[in-house]
Amino acid sequence: MMSINPDAHSTDEIELTHWGVEMARKGSVPKTRVLNCLDLDQVTAWLDTRRRKRRTKSKRFVVASSLRSSQ
Fold first, then answer.
1. Is 59 left (phi over 0), alpha (psi -120 to 50) or beta?
2. How many CA atoms lie within 13 A of 27 on its CB side?
3. What CA–CA distances, in Å, run from 30 to 14, 25, 46, 49, 50?
4. pLDDT at 61
5. d(CA 51, CA 35)
6. At a CB cut-off of 8 Å and minimum separation 6, what does 7 contact?
């Protein structure tokens, strides 16, 4: 997942977003892989999935760490 932004340093540079869009098109990035092309429900679902994955990884790390320290 990626987002396209202008890397603007002022509001006058907001239009530079089109360069990011051009590069994504050139690289054949589908809209479904661009965060700011999704609607609110899709972004929320993506964030929820990401949070669940992080919690699972954190729990695995804690379990693995405690197993190592008990040996």
1. alpha
2. 12
3. 22, 8, 16, 20, 20
4. 57
5. 16
6. 13, 16
Q: Tell the residue number behind the tokens 């972004």, with chain if given.
A: 43
Average pLDDT, consecutive stretches of 10 residues, N- to C-terminus, the chain (71 residues): 89 90 94 94 93 75 57 55
Domain boundaries, the chain: 11-69
Q: How far apart are CA 64 and CA 67, in angstroms?
A: 5
Residues 36 and 51: beta-carbon distance below 8 Å: no
What is the value of pTM for the model shown? 0.62
Using only C-alpha atoms, what is the Rg of the chain?
19
Distance CA 45, CA 23 (A): 26
Residue with tokens 């006058």: 12
DSSP 43: H
